[in-house]
């Protein structure tokens, strides 16, 4: 029987009105005031707040644990979050990131 693992890619646009809200930082609220909106969002994601921000799209493992955030790729306009049960390379051919998608399209 083949074991399968779950991987998920999420694109976030930090400049949208949804992320204009002041999110409460649990660990150090004074430090988060010095960060830009995008930097605050990145910090919240690394601190594990993503399932609270977006519970509808955050997948879980077979044991109902949230997936682990392994990588955040940052561009001017978006954040590309890569989550999974294991830290394995995701296939860029199936990426939803438009920068990766267009780079792969030019190779064809």
Question: Which features characterize this protein?
Answer:
single chain; 108 residues; alpha+beta; three-stranded antiparallel β-sheet; 4 helices; 26% helix
Helix amount, in percent?
25-40%
Structural class computed from helices and strand pairing: alpha+beta
Number of domains: 1
Spatial strand order of the main sheet: 1-3-2
**Beta strands, count:** 3
Radius of gyration (CA) equals 15 Å
Structure overview:
- With 108 residues, the protein is an alpha+beta fold.
- It has one domain.
- Helix content is 26%, strand content 18%.
- Strands 1-3-2 form a three-stranded antiparallel β-sheet, with helices on one face.
- It is globular, with a radius of gyration of 15 Å.
- 8% of the residues are buried.
- The model has no long low-confidence stretch (mean pLDDT 76).
Brief overview:
With 108 residues, this protein is α+β, with helices and mostly antiparallel strands.
